[in-house]
Design goal:
It contains 4 helices and 9 strands. The protein is of the alpha+beta class. It has one domain. Helix 1 crosses helix 3.
């Protein structure tokens, strides 16, 4: 399953936040899967030198629930390996960058089912892909299973990774809604 090569990514633009956004800017990338489905990757830059990596299918861009939607294409590994492939691109421009992956819960509208926050399916995939492809030479790895988030702290640019982890964790707990109900 994880023997996928990343799809070719294209940088689209650097985007400024709109009113109410907590990030400082976003780097926007696009790619097409082998099944020709267009995806958008957003690398939202926050204080504490951290990028939150998000993705969605381009056709859902106007939907409020675009990050939650399932495509039923069964290409999650291909999509996430491609999302992870932007890390070296960002590190070239910002060698101090750290990264966070907040795994959104899947929603199945037909079954009226919402996945639990704890160790959800995307989180388990993120954790497997990151451990396999990112390694531990550049980053210290932290998982927050209770909210299905995975954090990579750039240890080459930070002498106190535990301290930065705590700052980033608190910042994201203040910014994002990690409550079980939707």
């Amino acid at each position: 399953m994880l023997d996928r090569s990343p799809c070719e990514i294209k940088f689209v633009q650097k985007s400024s936040p709109i009113k109410g956004d907590d990030f400082l800017y976003a780097l926007i990338f696009k790619f097409f899967t082998t099944k020709k489905l267009k995806y958008i990757i957003r690398a939202e830059y926050f204080k504490n030198e951290v990028y939150a990596i998000k993705y969605y299918v381009a056709r859902d861009r106007r939907r409020d629930d675009k990050f939650y939607r399932l495509t039923n294409e069964f290409n999650a590994a291909e999509v996430f390996v491609t999302c992870a492939s932007i890390l070296p691109v960002i590190l070239k421009c910002n060698p101090a960058a750290s990264f966070c992956f907040n795994a959104t819960r899947s929603r199945e509208d037909k079954k009226d089912r919402i996945e639990s926050m704890y160790r959800n399916q995307r989180f388990r995939l993120y954790m497997e892909v990151i451990l396999r492809f990112i390694g531990v030479e550049t980053f210290d790895h932290y998982s927050f299973e209770e909210v299905s988030s995975y954090l990579l702290i750039n240890k080459l640019a930070c002498s106190d990774t535990e301290g930065r982890k705590d700052k980033i964790r608190e910042m994201f707990l203040d910014i994002f809604d990690f409550h079980e109900s939707i």
